[in-house]
Structure formats: structure tokens, C-alpha cells
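Appendix B, Record 12. Input sequence as logged:
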Amino acid sequence: MMKRLLLIIIASCGMITVHAQCGIENTAFKSGEFLSYDLYFNWKFVWVKVGTASMSTVQSTRNGKPAFRSSLITRGNSRLDDYFIMRDTLLCYTDMDLAPIYFRKGAREGKRYYVDELWYTYPGNNCHLKMHRIEDDGTHNWKEAEYKSCIYDMMSIFLRARNFDASKLKVGENIPMPISDAHRLSNSWLKYTGKTTIKMRNNKSKFRCLVFSFIEREDGKNHELIRFFVTDDKNHLPVRLDLFLSFGSAKCYLTGMKGLRNEMTSKVE
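Logged structural output:
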């Protein structure tokens, strides 16, 4: 679950066809952006660094057409390995309007390794998913589903959410975020909870941030899985994420960034 939350967070904010509806104008990032994070876990009331994550986005091609290619790599360190092994690599392609085209996740989580793949097409104003999972025992599971509304994955929803116009949001407002993997579609949404200023962990940098909660409904109950802090500027970078896990609490901090499209006007000197 921790990886899913991180991804979702590090995950952090024209209607002729559904394909067009599933896209959004990109004003938040450009080709060549690179972000890095440190992950901390609350171990016996002490925050211990247990891993890292890095994400890159470049312009590429898919099926002979221009596309964005984004990859995310998460790695636990030796301290986390003693408790829970984490080795995840994610990849997604979107068109230039950020409508999803393809997604892949290869994950080693604990003793389990699996691969998820999604292929997106948009027939008859619908969103069609072809899903493939390779289980830990090598079993291949295939299925397909079609929806009247847009569906996203952990990566493409991150790119889309960074382009939301936060100035139009009201405190307490919910934003639907239907996310699928090769197993199931989650009933999930973002809740906007306002603005604050935060200080980063290992330096004196401060950022003005928008605050969101990621909530998922499961077994008839709403669960806040993560609270995250996104820069209040055109980049909308998640600079801190608070994770609420079944086995404890974790935090992610942005540690490096380059190739940004916009000036970081949210930084407080």
C-alpha cells in the first residue's frame, strides 16, 4: 500500500470525444523535468530515512505520434529491507494533452513480484482498458473493461492533477480521481482543505502550499490515505506527503528538482 500511496501522491492536483475529455492543457511541466524524494518512516517515535523515489518526464513518441514518457522509480534502503522490501518501477505514456495511452508497473513488494499493464483506447466516446497482470507465480491474467467516463492510472493522474486550476477550488471540495490497475478500479477522490506554509526537513526552505487529502472508499468506509502539500504556483509540485499506513506513519520530502517549466514563486525566502 505504501508504494501505491507514494505514487499516487508524489501523488499531488474541447469535448468532442472522450479522448479529448480525458486530456487537459499542460501548463505545469515540460520535457526534461526531474524530481527526487526521500522517504521517512516513524520508527518508535523517531523519523528514520527508509528510501528514495525519483521521477522524470520527457517528450517521446508512441504509436508514431508525439507523447510524454514518464517514469517513476522507488527504492527502499537496507533499513526498510529488514521490514519490507520495496523495488518499484513505473512507466506511462500520455498524448501531448495528457490523455493516457499506456501504463506499466513492475513491483517487488515484500516477497512478492508482479507486473501490471494497461492499454487505453477510446472507441465510440468511451474509455476502453485492456489489462494484463503477471502474478508472482508467473500466471498471466487478462481482462478488458469499458467506461463512459475517463479512467487513469497512478502516473497519468499525477500529470493531470498538476494542471488543475486551484484558484477555482473551494475548501472542502472533492475532485473525483478514478484510478485503475490491472486488478480493480478504485473509488477515490481528492479533497481540497486549504492553504498553509511548510518548512522542509533538512534545510530552511519554506513553501506556500495547497493542501489536499487523497481519500478512498473501501468496505463501505472512507479512508484518508495521504495528505499532501503542493506548491501554490504554476508548477504544483508535491513538496511533502504525509502517508497514513495500516502499519504506521510515513512522510516524503522533495529533495531535488531540475528542468522546471515555471519559476518557483511559492518559495518563501
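Residues 6-17 have pLDDT under 50 and may be disordered.
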